[in-house]
Amino acid sequence: MAPAPVVALVPGIWRIPLVRDFVNGFILRDDDGQVTLVDMGLKPSGPKVIAALAAIGSAPSEVTRLVLTHAHPDHAGGAAHVAAATGRGFDIHASDAAYAREGSSPPRDRSFLLGRIFDLLSRGQDFTPVPVERELADGDVLPVVGGLRVVHTPGHSPGHISLLHEPTRLLITGDAIFNVRRLRWPVRAFCTDFAMTKRTAAVLGELDYDLAAFTHGPELRDHPREAIRGFLARERLA
């Protein structure tokens, strides 16, 4: 049986499983029908994002905002397709905006051999460049479904963000933390600064939320804040 095109999280917000549960995007829809899309997955996933809109009864013409948590090809790969289908540019943190415009990933962590190899092999463009409409900053509150707060969690990339929807107490971690079989860090060599990734993720344990959603892995519905705080505590002691 084919996987469902969307997974309902809270009223007005859905997860889009773009590569099963391993790579996810998100849909947020206001009461007036305006739609915000967050993260577009790999290059082949652009049409899946548009199909997910149809699954909730929305159309590309109703999309009024596009958001990228960061400029990596498994999040921005499908972005050019979605931008063309909706006629919209992207909101992305100011520190990742130039990379999105260029279609290139930020530098990898060169303290790891694999990071140095990835940087050496990089040919400059990892995904089709995308238009940037707004450059975001930490603490910005987007007028989306009652307010979507930008939480700057750099390290995975310089402008990596998590998102907190305070009205429904939903956290989207982005790639600050994965939930692939268990809570874990993103791949170290894919980060710009892995040590910073670990430091800035601490803020996710300080926020208030009742549901945690991940761009890699399924959501946590059962005491997610306690689970994330426990993970962060264990990692500090490791």
UniProtKB/TrEMBL annotation:
Record keyword Hydrolase present: yes
Domain of life of the native organism: Bacteria
Residue ranges occupied by any Metallo-beta-lactamase domain in the UniProt entry: 22-216
Pfam family, one: Lactamase_B
Sorted UniProt keywords: Hydrolase
Keyword flag Ligase: no
Signal peptide: none
SUPFAM superfamilies in UniProt: Metallo-hydrolase/oxidoreductase
GO MF annotation: an example: hydrolase activity
Entries under PANTHER family matching the protein: METALLO-BETA-LACTAMASE DOMAIN-CONTAINING, METALLO-BETA-LACTAMASE DOMAIN-CONTAINING PROTEIN
Protein known as: Glyoxylase-like metal-dependent hydrolase (Beta-lactamase superfamily II)
Provenance organism: Humibacillus xanthopallidus
